[in-house]
Amino acid sequence: MAPGALNSGDKGITPDSPFSGSRLPVSDIKIVGFESYGSDAMNPAGDYSAAHIRLLTNTDLTGHGISFTIGRGNDLCTAAARQIAERLVGKTLGELTESMGKTWRYLVSDSQLRWVGPEKGVMHLGLSACVNALWDLWGRYLNKPIWQLVSEMTPEEFVACIDFRYILDAITPEEAVALLKTQESTKGARIQEARKNRAVPAYTTQAGWLGFSDERMVELIKSNLAAGMDKFKLKVGGNLEDDKRRVKIARETIGYDRMLMLDANQVWSVPEAIEYMNAFLEFKPLFIEEPTSPDDILGHAAIRKALKPHGIGVATGEHCQNRVIFKQLLQAEAIDYCQVDACRLGGVNEVMAVLLMAKKFNVPIVPHSGGIGLNEYTQHLALLNYICVSGEKSLLEHINSFSEVLQHPVKTESGYFVTPWEAGYSVEYKPEAIAAYSFPTGSFWNSEQGMAIQNGPKA
């Protein structure tokens, strides 16, 4: 039985909802972007949206989960979350957490819903909202943040959270337990690093959005440097000459002694990625992120082989649809950095599986954190990876745009994330944000600005 799990009959998840007429309260939350925040070569004008779910119980405990999107299609994720969540109604927290691996398998085993997946795409995004809400509920019951809840598990309890179907050719439960046991004796020292807010080093993308002017980019780089943030990522993939100019300006502003990363957001073919990256060699980027289609395992391997002599790594994962694709990327030696996403994968359980595979294949974890709530999630994932799995600090992307809508937004201090101590998974929205931005009934969407967005041209 997992630590702190409840006995059968306690705190059953109920269908009653003060928030909506559906059996489980699910809503769209849209936060409108400004000043080209979030702009990149593939996604020029996203808004910051999320499918949002609350799991209610027969007590005052509530579990909160989100699945981040960038606008249209958010309603599809909401519908997927609603249908998957129906499988939780009437269950007790105790029976669901007694074997989280079996619970995860149960949630992906509705054959009719599985037909429109399986374990990928919109259905998987909906699943992640439900699974992450369940973990949030468990953490709130135990009054522990998710990273601490997992860190206090034994290796056997950790492994019991994972569905190993489809990945046994990469790692077995027995191998996973042995791997975790190698970290047990030094786990305490890493927890102390977490207590000192020195467990998760941060880099920022906030100065590097493709839609920013050169002047705005430089201004934001300098303000971040002044605040102790010394690692940066820039979006590329537009006009090559424009990209070279921007990267040159950024590198000169940052300095060659600090870390710079590039992100193409999937826009290149494999030959283009190799050709274009040759144009950036003099600027010495650490890695190129998403240089081509996220599903192209062999393409990533070819790009990695071409860039390796130049000391440039390949990173991907934010659109990696499940543990199976990650398995193949690792087996094919196609990536240097494994970028798990808290919503694209099916929640904490599947992330834990990928962390273990990445450790076995000796590939560092650098989680993706590009939108509202994602950073709040991934700070926990980076912590549990460092403390339990890899023993090495996970460089983590820092994005805090519009964080004022969250109850517990991420914080950084001198280039590190401040360790979260609130119970649960840190993604609860403020009630006033739900009232303002729930789509399409929220007060913002009925305002002049909101109506202009709804009735305006589709980007």
Keywords:
4-stranded antiparallel beta sheet, hydro-lyase activity, Mandelate racemase/muconate lactonizing enzyme C-terminal domain-containing protein, alpha/beta, 41% helix, magnesium, 12% strand, globular
This entry's quaternary arrangement is single chain
Gap between N and C termini:
50 Å
Low-pLDDT segments, ≥5 res: 1-10, 15-25, 29-35
- Annotation field: number of helices: 18
Mean pLDDT: 90
Strand segment count = 13
**What's the overall geometry?**
globular
Helicity, in percent?
40-55%
Strand order of the largest sheet: 5-6-7-8-9
How does the helix and strand content classify structurally? alpha/beta
Q: Radius of gyration, Cα only, in angstroms?
A: 21 Å
* Biggest beta sheet attributes: 5 strands, parallel
What portion of residues belong to β-strands? 5-15%
InterPro entries: Enolase-like_C_sf, Enolase-like_N, Enolase_C-like, Mandel_Rmase/mucon_lact_enz_CS, Mandelate_racemase_C, RHMD-like
GO molecular function: hydro-lyase activity; magnesium ion binding
Cofactor: Mg(2+)
Protein name: Mandelate racemase/muconate lactonizing enzyme C-terminal domain-containing protein
